[in-house]
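Morning F.,

Quick status update on the modeling queue. The single chain you submitted on Monday has been processed. Sequence for confirmation:
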Amino acid sequence: MGQLWLQYDPAVTERDLDYAKRLQLNQARVFVPYDAWERDKVTLRKNLLHLVRAAHERGIGIMPTMQYKSDEWKDKTAWANSREFVSDLVATIGKEPGVEIWDVENEPECCKLPPTADDRLHMEHAMYMAKVFHELDPVTPVTIGATFVENMIELGDAVDVLSFHDYSPTRAQIRSSIQKAREYAAKTGKSLVATEIGC
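Structure tokens below.
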């Protein structure tokens, strides 16, 4: 995925954002991988900034979704290593009006319910990263894209915006998950978004 950022084409991006605007889409969630940053920081910064500004010009907000160094979440002593990566991204786009929400970790507890011991460690890493983002960018809201509503609820205190995914096999199950998520959001007073969904 990092290669996509390094081969980024501004003209193609603007064309696709124009399509999105014609469809009246107003948000885009984009993955920002550590490996692209590690390989070519200058290029990633330039391309990410172009995307955020081009989207904002079209009324489309961006939710950067973080991808850290592979398996680093397994070693607590290594968690602070991501700070330089995050700091650089916050310095690059953190004050851009087109950045709506930081998605600080994607599906840290994928894909078991209830979470396994490893999943729980990964969830703990996500909460740690939420604190890092809150510290480095106290203005922009943060979320964690949870695989299941139940885990979104467990992570709820760490985020400003609640986010869950649902790929249940029936519409009834998805409706039930959405209802559970709405009830929790109403109780906490936090905004809620389903950032991935499919039946």
